[in-house]
Amino acid sequence: MAYLNENYLKLQAGYLFPEIARRVREFCEANPGAEQKLIRCGIGDVTEPLPAAAVSAMRQAVDELGKRETFRGYGPEQGYPFLRSAIAQHDFRDRNLDIADDEIFVSDGSKCDCGFILDILGDQNKVAITDPVYPVYVDTNVMAGHTGAANADGRYEGITYLPCTAETNFVPEPPREHVDLVYLCFPNNPTGAVASRTQLTRWVEYAPAL
């Protein structure tokens, strides 16, 4: 008999963004003409076509994969060396940041990585998460068994919530109690706040005390 991961049962609802889309759709159906005036705060989307350089590069890559002499097959798990080198050079070294090629990791996206990294972290860790926050940070910890049940207001036992409010310019302060793992993301999603050097310094000074 195969057993289910019962931590999934602690999740309070479906994923946030499909729920937002459902509510928006119902609102627009009930309010004809609202679609044109609606400011969407769900999943972002692109509004411009791909630049010519990207289209050209993708066509060249497809042509290479269509020829036996230039076909590559599966790429290295860390990303192709030529791509990692180009990222390190143009995004970092050209800006006087000392980043080596092997410090670059090309993955299939940050959302997947948020779940994958928890595979190496024990469920005894005390987790701190900004509030409000990108929902994946919370949901992946719930599914990995790093939290207790949710209370009446939807917050999970075992998580330390770090308020991002207007009073703090939507940048959290380090918690007073001990935590083992802190989720910080700037610009913050969903507030868009960016931490100053002074604010980040407080977190760097806090880290050795974790």
Summarize the structure.
With 210 residues, the protein is mainly alpha-helical. It has helices spanning 16-30, 52-65, 81-92, 110-116, 135-143, 197-206, and strands spanning 127-131, 159-163, 181-183.
Core attributes:
210 residues; mainly alpha; three-stranded parallel sheet; 6 helices; 3 strands
Count of helix runs: 6
Question: What's the helical proportion of residues?
Answer: 25-40%
Largest sheet properties: 3 strands, parallel
Percent strand: 5-15%
Number of strands: 3
SSE topology string = HHHHEHEEH
Terminal residue distance: 41 Å
Q: Which structural class is indicated by helix and strand composition?
A: mainly alpha
Rg estimate, integer Å:
22 Å
Q: Walk across the major sheet and give the strand order.
A: 2-1-3
**How would you sum up the global shape?**
globular
Describe the protein in words.
Helices cover 32% and strands 6% of the residues. The mean pLDDT is 89. It contains six helices and three strands, in the order ααααβαββα. Helix 5 links the parallel strand 1 and strand 2. 8% of the residues are buried. It has helices at 16-30, 52-65, 81-92, 110-116, 135-143, 197-206, and strands spanning 127-131, 159-163, 181-183. The chain is mainly α and 210 residues long. Strands 2-1-3 form a three-stranded parallel sheet, with helices on one face.
